[in-house]
Structure formats: structure tokens, C-alpha cells
């Protein structure tokens, strides 16, 4: 043992530090929880809570089927929701492409303006919830679905940009080199060696974002930016539970259907 | 060299599928454009209005910071508690859904189906429903975030659990472990890292989500967005945006550091 | 003709990749460059089409300095030099034909190539190139569905479609089995003889080098330590040059596989 002094000394030291780290994290976590729960308001279940829950449940079981085909009814609202998410997703995908390349770290160049700033801009965009963006766009283009389209289109750039950048970072640089060696110019190199590698990923992520945007678009109506959200919030505030029920079912069906289709397409692309 | 080779060359595959796909996408886009009443002309003609909106936001109302500290903390609290409850509830859900843990298909498939149903409902909608049940305040927000978190954590983790190394599981079966021992020694050590990382990720998502739940009356900073925008008080809106940005960036940073430390 | 005039290359980290290289490679030669791992073979080859910048000296391609060339000029010189890589560097998701056609992009304006509008002659040229390396039947197959040897033949076809006057190949057979190695090397030799394309190949194996080369260049630590016809490149000669290094390396496989 005396021949291996470094081992006998080093090991417990490193371990002690690790344990210390863990304990420190646990203590911090405990403090956070004490703080979080201390701030919670007194929790009393209102007598009506049970009643309302039952009413909502009844409403879902006996939905207001008449609303489905009404003018500006369920079908119309869901189509509007879908249209908002399709257009919003498309706009964001197109706008994201340059961002993806901007925020990707590269072998040949580095520095704040190449990658760091791009990443910061993306985080900055991601901070604005689509609902808040929608409120702002409503001020600009008036209430309605278009404001919703713009909100989704802008908000989605934040997440898509990050994913696109990762895709760009993961490309095989060999084909790029091969194209440069043939005498291709920058754009030709991009089109013939980079795009074919990143496009399937881009499309797949766009479809994934589309799934999220359908969910997002279904609540935009709450603040007046089109889609099924408007009749929903109206039904909720007027306590029209059968109508809430039918709308909820409609959203679940729409989102599930889109998830299925999009999931199938994504599997096919890869 | 400009003659095609004599040998039989294969026929180029038809491009019909590509053209059809492109056509479908274009039609969908056109229909969506019409349905939503979109008009990029509007956007261009209204650019002054948008610019003035942005100009109105400056300078931010710094004094307002003091007033929004409390709701901001409330937002963080909601996210902390919602994520925690969500994580706790996720554990049994994960074990039920992962088909290499729960080998009974008539349990794992319905469990996944319900999980997928939960995931279809947007968090703001959950919050609106819980507000109807419990009244205004943090409580409905916490409930909404809890359910929302289960949807994310359970889904991501059970998929990872299904991909874990089979070796330890077989080893535990070989030594004759019972189900609880089997889960403790074969599943948890491998799944824990994923679980923690997904919980932290969900926490980041929840901070953003919690910031808007107030729009439907479920506590936090969201209510203040609504009222200030309603009163056209843009300097205050700007303050809110800056505060939210700061909190989100800090939380992301801390969460990332924590993830690195724990893994 | 390729001319190295006092070429040196120092990597940013201070490593000397090439030390004062002077070489003249005539049209139609089949040159094999050999050397131990790290000798500077790739560095030398990649300086020819300026995938690597050199730090000193000048490289002339057909009496035009590629070292001084810029922009469009540089791209035109590169257009005449085909390159073949150890790991093929095909776009795996694209079809074989599209990969071969990508060798033609430098001949057309950007807009045209962005939309993939190649003239009929180009497509025939590409198909003929594929025919020459015997895989024209795979023209519309996705490249990742081909074996390694087939992929390397596609990349040879790309260089052919490029109508290159020079072909550079950096260990084109290093990831192939002996049989496919022979096919690929035979293809390169055939092209060299039939079309008179100057060919410069980096190889680890001296016995293959002797089989195919008209002239062998030996590198060591960035310097030319042998340059002569195949007949002079005897085992004894290389033993002398690389000495103990060779023996050591031999146990691991590369360079001196002459003993095989
Ligand atoms: N990008 C680089 N940065 C720094 N040094 C490099 C770089 N590329 C190569 N080198 C160094 O330059 C020397 C020559 O490398 P080179 O790749 O040309 O060798 P090689 O003969 O092709 O070897 P191998 O047979 O292993 O491919 C080596 O010492 C290598 O470590
Ligand atoms: Mg090399």
C-alpha cells in the first residue's frame, strides 16, 4: 500500500467533495421547498368544488352535440385552430432557417457574433409566451386569427432555432469538403452538401413543433386571437358545461389526430 | 460522352409523390391563409402602429418592479410545487407505462392512452377548468401545472426507461429478486439520471407556463400582463417582460448547472 | 502538371506538416505517396487543391498558381481537380446520380444548380461515369444503401463527371476489404491509362503502391525522403529510409506491408 500513496490519498478526497456537493444541493432544495410551501395560500376546498367538478364531468359525458355543426361552432373553431397552427408553423420554419445556421457553433469560426448572439436572441424570443405575443399582435393587426398566426410564427422560432442549430452542428463535414473540392461556390456547397443533410431533421422538428402549436392555437382564443379558445372561454365563464365538454372533446380529438398523423410522417422521414 | 451509356440504365423513379406532397402542402397553406383572414399587407401597412407600440414601451416603469416581486415569486412557487407533485405522481405512471417494467399489455396500453389524452389538453385550458372548480388563486394553477408536468415527465421518462440496458434486469431476475427489488436495483439506478434531467427540464417549461396562467385567474404574474395591456400601460408591460426574461434566464441557468452537477 | 515550389506548412498549433517540398508531377503520371502515419501525406495532397492553406512557397497547377488564386479563379482551378476521400464523403441521403452530378455544379450558374436543372449532357456524362466504374444500375439508389466499395466507386464517378484533369485520392482504400481494394485501385488505374488523368494517391501499403504506381514518393516528418520509379522502391530501400520506425509500425500493420 505504501507504494501507492497517491491512490490512498486521492480517492477519499474526491469522494468527500462529491458528498459535500450532494449534501449542499439537498440543503438548497430543502430550503426552496420550505420557501415554496410557506408562501402557499390557505387551501380550503370550496363547497361548490365537488358540485362543479361533477357538473363538468356530466358535461363531458353529455356534450352539447348541437354545437358541433353550428355556424361558428365546434367544427369552425377547430378548423380555424388548425389553420392558425399550420400557417404559424410554416412561417416560423421559414424564418428559423437562417437562425438555425446563425446559432450553430462552427469549426471554422467562433465568437460571440457567430454563435453566442444567435443563441441569446433565440432564448430571448422563447421567453415570450405565445399568448403574450398574441396580445401584442392584436394591438397591431386587430383581434382575430391573424394575430394568432403571427404570435405562433414568432414564438416557435425560439425553440425551432435551437433544434435546427443542433441539427446543423451534427452534420458530416466530409461532403462539404468534397463539394468545395469540386470548385462549387458557397451556395452550391450549401444546397448540395449541407441542406440534404439537415432538411429531414428540419422537417421532422417542424412537424413536432406543429403538434405543439395545435395545442397552443387552441387557447389563443382566450385572449381573442382566433380559434376554438374563444367559444371555450365563453362557455367556461357562462358555466355552460355541456358546451365546455363538447369543446374539450373536440380539442382532444383534433390534437390526438394531429399527433398521430405528424408522428407517422416523422417516422417516415427519418 | 454525351450519349447515354449502352448498358441498360434504370428508369428514374417517378417524382409524382414529391409533386403531390408539395401540392398538398401548398393547398393547406393557401386554405389556412384564407381561413385565418391573414394579410401580410396589413402587417406592412400597420408597421407604424407596431413601431409606436414598441416605442411606447420605453422607458420601462422601473418603479413598478417592486409591485411585481410578490406575484413573480408566486409564479416561481407555483412552478416549484407543480413540478414536484407532477414528478411524484409520474413515478407510478412511468412504471405502469414502460413495457419492459410492466409486462402486462392490458395495463400498459391503457395507461399510455390516458397519458396521451392528458397531454392533449393545453395547460392554460387545464388552469381555466381548475379556476372554475376552485376559484381564483394559486391553487388551480398548481393543479394545472401538476397534471401538465405528469404529461411531460412521465412520457419522456418511460420512453427512456424502455431504452435502458437489459443486462442488469436479467441479472436481477437471475438472482431471484422480487418485483420491488427488481425495480430498485435494475431500473431506478439507470432511470434516475433521465428522470432528474427531465424533471429539471419540465421545471423550466413550467416557469414559462406559470407566467401566463394568471390570464385565466390562476395566480402568478400573468394577471398583471392582462390588466396592464388592458389599460394600455406599455411601460409597465415592458417591466413585466424584463422581469420575466430575467427570471426565466436565471432559472434556465441554474437548472442547467444543477443538471450538470447531478449527472 | 503539378509543381511544388519550396512549399512548407505549419499548423496553427506549431506542428510542421510539410518542410520545404519541391516536386514536379507530370501529366498522366500515377503517383503513390507513402509514409508512416503522421508523415504529412494528407497535408501534401490537400494543399494541392487548397483544402489546406500552405504557409510558404507556391503550388502551380498547369502553370497557374493555385496559391495566389482567389474566388472564381480558385474555383475554376479546383473544378479541374477531382478528389476522392477515405470515407467517400457522399451525401448519404441523396441518390447516387445526384452525388455524381454534384461534381458538375461548378460548371453552371448558381440559380440553375439550386433548382437541380442539369442539362441532358451532364446527366449522360454522370451516367457514363457510373458505367465506367460499373455501377450505373445503382444510379437512382440512395447512396447509404451501397457498400463501402460501391460508395467509393461513386465518388470516383463524381471526379470523372467533373471532367477532372487531376485526381487526388487520400487513402481511397483504407476502409475497404482486399477484394474491393483491388476493384477500386483497378478503376483508378484504368481511368489514369485510358483518359490520361494525372493521379496522386496516398496509400499505407507499399505492395499496392508498387502494383499500381508509375512513381512512388516517400514522406517522413513532412519531408520527401524518396522519389523515384517503382523499380527503385525496394524493400531494402524503405527499410533503410524508415529503419526502426518501419519495423515498429509493421507490427501494427501500416506502411511496410511489403512483407505480406
Ligand atoms: N488540423 C491540424 N492541426 C494541427 N496539426 C495537424 C492537423 N492535421 C494534421 N496535423 C499534423 O500534421 C502532421 C501530418 O499529418 P497528416 O494528416 O498529413 O499525416 P498523414 O501522413 O496523412 O497520416 P495518416 O497516414 O495517419 O493519415 C501530423 O503530425 C499531424 O499530427
Ligand atoms: Mg492522412
Mean pLDDT of chain C: 87
CATH topology of chain B: MetI-like fold
> Nearest-angstrom radius of gyration of chain B?
26 Å
Biggest interface, chains and residue tallies: A-B, 64 and 58 residues
Taken together, the total number of domains of chain B comes to: 1
Largest beta-sheet details of chain B: none
- Unreliable spans of chain C are 254-260
Structure overview:
The complex is a heterotrimer of chains A (270), B (263) and C (260). Chain A is mainly α and 270 residues long. Chain A has 11 helices and no strands. In chain A, helix 4 runs antiparallel to helix 5. Mean pLDDT of chain A is 85; it is low at 1-10. Chain B has 263 residues and is mainly α. Chain B has a single domain (62-262), classed as MetI-like (MetI-like fold, Orthogonal Bundle). Helices cover 78% and strands 0% of the residues of chain B. Chain B has 11 helices and no strands. The termini of chain B are far apart. Chain C has 260 residues and is of the alpha/beta class. In chain C, 38% of the residues lie in helices and 23% in strands. In chain C, helix 5 (120-132) packs across helix 6 and helix 6 (148-161) runs parallel beside helix 7 (178-195). The chains are: A mainly alpha (270), B mainly alpha (263), C alpha/beta (260). Chains in contact: A-B, A-C, B-C. At the A-B interface, helix 1, helix 2, helix 4, helix 5 and helix 6 of A face helix 1, helix 3, helix 4, helix 5 and helix 6 of B. Adenosine-5'-triphosphate (ATP) binds at residues 11, 13, 15, 17, 35, 37-43 of chain C. Adenosine-5'-triphosphate (ATP) binds next to helix 1 of chain C.
Fold topology:
The complex is a heterotrimer of chains A (270), B (263) and C (260).
Chain A: H1 5-38, H2 47-61, H3 66-69, H4 74-103, H5 112-127, H6 130-141, H7 145-169, H8 174-181, H9 186-220, H10 229-237, H11 241-269
Chain B: H1 16-35, H2 40-45, H3 47-56, H4 64-97, H5 105-120, H6 123-134, H7 138-162, H8 166-174, H9 179-213, H10 222-230, H11 234-262
Helix pairs in contact in B: 4-7, 4-9, 4-11, 5-7, 6-7, 7-9, 8-9, 9-11, 10-11
Chain C: E1 2-10, E2 16-25, E3 30-35, H1 41-48, E4 56-61, E5 64-65, H2 71-79, E6 81-84, H3 96-101, H4 110-114, H5 120-132, H6 148-161, E7 166-170, H7 178-195, E8 198-202, H8 206-212, E9 215-220, E10 223-229, H9 235-252
Parallel strand pairs in C: 3-8, 3-9, 6-7, 7-8
Antiparallel strand pairs in C: 1-2, 1-4, 4-5, 9-10
Helix pairs in contact in C: 5-6, 6-7
The structure holds adenosine-5'-triphosphate and magnesium ion.
Amino acid at each position: 500500500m505504501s507504494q501507492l500513496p497517491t491512490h490512498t490519498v486521492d480517492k477519499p478526497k474526491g469522494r468527500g467533495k462529491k458528498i459535500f456537493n450532494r449534501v449542499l444541493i439537498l440543503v438548497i432544495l430543502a430550503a426552496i421547498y420550505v420557501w415554496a410551501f410557506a408562501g402557499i395560500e390557505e387551501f380550503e376546498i370550496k363547497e361548490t368544488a365537488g358540485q362543479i367538478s361533477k357538473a363538468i364531468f356530466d358535461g363531458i359525458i353529455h356534450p352539447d352535440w348541437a354545437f358541433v355543426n353550428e355556424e361558428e361552432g365546434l367544427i369552425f373553431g377547430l378548423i380555424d385552430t388548425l389553420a392558425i397552427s399550420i400557417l404559424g408553423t410554416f412561417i416560423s420554419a421559414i424564418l428559423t432557417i437562417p437562425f438555425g445556421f446563425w446559432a450553430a457553433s462552427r469549426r471554422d469560426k467562433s465568437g460571440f457574433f457567430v454563435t453566442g448572439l444567435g443563441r441569446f436572441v433565440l432564448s430571448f424570443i422563447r421567453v415570450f409566451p405565445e399568448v403574450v405575443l398574441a396580445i401584442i399582435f392584436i394591438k397591431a393587426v386587430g383581434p382575430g386569427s391573424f394575430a394568432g398566426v403571427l404570435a405562433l410564427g414568432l414564438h416557435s422560432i425560439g425553440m425551432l432555432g435551437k433544434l435546427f442549430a443542433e441539427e446543423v452542428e451534427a452534420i458530416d463535414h466530409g461532403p462539404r469538403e468534397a463539394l468545395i473540392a469540386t470548385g462549387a461556390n458557397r451556395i452550391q456547397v450549401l444546397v448540395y452538401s449541407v441542406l440534404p443533410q439537415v432538411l429531414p431533421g428540419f422537417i421532422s422538428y417542424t412537424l413536432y413543433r406543429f403538434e405543439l402549436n395545435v395545442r397552443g392555437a387552441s387557447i389563443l382564443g382566450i385572449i381573442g386571437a382566433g380559434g376554438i379558445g374563444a367559444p371555450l372561454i365563453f362557455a367556461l365563464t357562462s358555466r355552460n358545461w355541456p358546451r365546455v365538454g363538447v369543446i374539450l372533446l373536440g380539442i382532444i380529438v383534433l390534437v390526438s389526430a394531429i399527433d398521430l398523423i405528424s408522428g407517422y410522417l416523422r417516422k417516415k422521414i427519418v | 460522352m454525351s450519349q447515354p451509356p449502352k448498358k441498360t440504365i434504370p428508369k428514374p423513379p417517378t417524382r409524382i409523390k414529391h409533386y403531390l406532397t408539395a401540392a398538398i402542402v401548398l393547398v393547406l397553406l393557401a386554405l389556412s391563409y384564407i381561413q385565418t383572414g391573414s394579410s401580410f399587407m396589413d402587417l406592412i401597412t400597420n408597421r407604424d402602429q407596431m413601431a409606436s407600440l414598441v416605442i411606447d414601451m420605453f422607458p420601462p416603469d422601473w418603479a413598478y418592479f417592486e409591485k411585481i416581486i410578490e406575484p413573480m415569486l408566486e409564479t416561481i412557487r407555483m412552478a416549484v410545487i407543480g413540478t414536484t407533485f407532477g414528478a411524484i405522481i409520474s413515478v407510478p405512471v412511468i412504471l405502469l407505462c414502460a413495457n419492459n417494467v410492466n409486462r402486462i399489455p392490458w395495463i400498459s396500453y391503457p395507461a399510455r392512452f390516458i397519458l396521451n389524452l392528458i397531454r392533449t389538453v393545453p395547460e392554460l385550458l387545464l388552469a381555466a377548468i381548475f379556476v372554475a372548480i376552485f376559484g381564483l388563486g394559486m391553487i388551480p394553477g398548481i393543479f394545472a401545472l401538476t397534471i401538465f408536468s405528469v404529461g411531460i415527465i412521465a412520457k419522456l421518462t418511460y420512453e427512456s426507461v424502455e431504452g435502458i440496458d437489459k443486462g442488469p434486469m436479467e441479472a436481477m431476475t437471475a438472482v431471484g429478486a422480487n418485483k420491488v427489488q427488481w425495480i430498485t436495483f435494475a431500473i431506478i439506478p439507470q432511470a434516475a439520471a433521465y428522470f432528474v434531467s427531465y424533471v429539471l427540464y419540465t421545471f423550466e417549461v413550467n416557469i414559462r407556463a406559470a407566467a401566463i396562467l394568471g390570464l385565466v385567474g390562476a395566480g402568478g404574474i400573468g394577471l398583471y400582463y392582462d390588466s396592464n395591456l388592458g389599460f394600455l400601460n406599455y411601460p409597465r408591460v415592458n417591466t413585466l417582460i424584463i422581469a420575466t426574461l430575467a427570471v426565466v434566464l436565471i432559472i434556465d441557468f441554474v437548472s442547467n448547472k444543477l443538471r450538470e452537477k447531478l449527472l | 502538371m503539378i509543381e511544388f515550389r519550396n512549399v512548407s506548412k505549419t499548423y496553427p498549433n506549431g506542428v510542421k506538416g510539410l518542410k520545404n517540398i519541391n516536386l514536379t508531377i507530370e501529366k498522366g503520371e500515377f503517383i503513390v505517396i507513402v509514409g508512416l502515419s503522421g508523415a504529412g501525406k494528407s497535408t501534401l495532397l490537400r494543399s494541392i487543391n487548397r483544402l489546406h492553406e500552405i504557409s510558404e512557397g507556391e503550388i502551380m497547377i498547369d502553370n497557374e498558381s493555385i496559391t495566389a488564386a482567389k474566388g472564381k479563379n480558385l474555383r475554376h482551378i479546383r473544378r479541374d481537380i477531382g478528389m476522392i476521400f477515405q470515407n467517400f464523403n457522399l451525401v448519404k441521403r441523396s441518390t447516387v446520380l445526384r452525388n455524381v452530378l454534384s461534381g458538375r455544379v461548378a460548371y453552371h450558374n448558381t440559380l440553375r444548380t439550386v433548382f437541380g436543372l442539369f442539362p441532358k449532357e451532364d446527366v449522360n456524362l454522370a451516367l457514363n461515369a457510373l458505367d465506367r466504374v460499373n455501377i450505373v444500375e445503382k444510379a437512382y439508389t440512395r447512396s447509404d444503401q451501397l457498400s463501402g466499395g460501391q460508395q467509393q466507386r461513386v465518388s470516383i464517378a463524381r471526379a470523372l463527371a467533373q471532367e477532372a484533369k487531376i485526381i487526388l485520392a487520400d487513402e481511397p482504400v483504407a476502409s475497404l476489404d482486399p477484394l474491393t481494394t483491388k476493384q477500386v485501385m483497378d478503376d483508378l488505374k484504368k481511368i489514369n491509362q485510358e483518359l490520361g488523368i494525372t493521379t496522386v494517391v496516398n496509400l499505407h501499403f507499399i505492395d499496392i503502391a508498387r502494383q499500381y504506381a508509375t512513381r512512388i514518393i516517400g514522406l517522413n516528418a513532412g519531408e520527401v525522403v524518396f522519389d523515384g520509379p517503382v523499380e527503385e522502391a525496394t524493400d531494402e530501400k524503405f527499410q533503410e529510409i524508415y529503419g526502426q520506425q518501419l519495423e515498429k509500425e509493421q507490427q501494427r500493420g501500416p506502411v511496410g506491408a511489403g512483407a505480406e
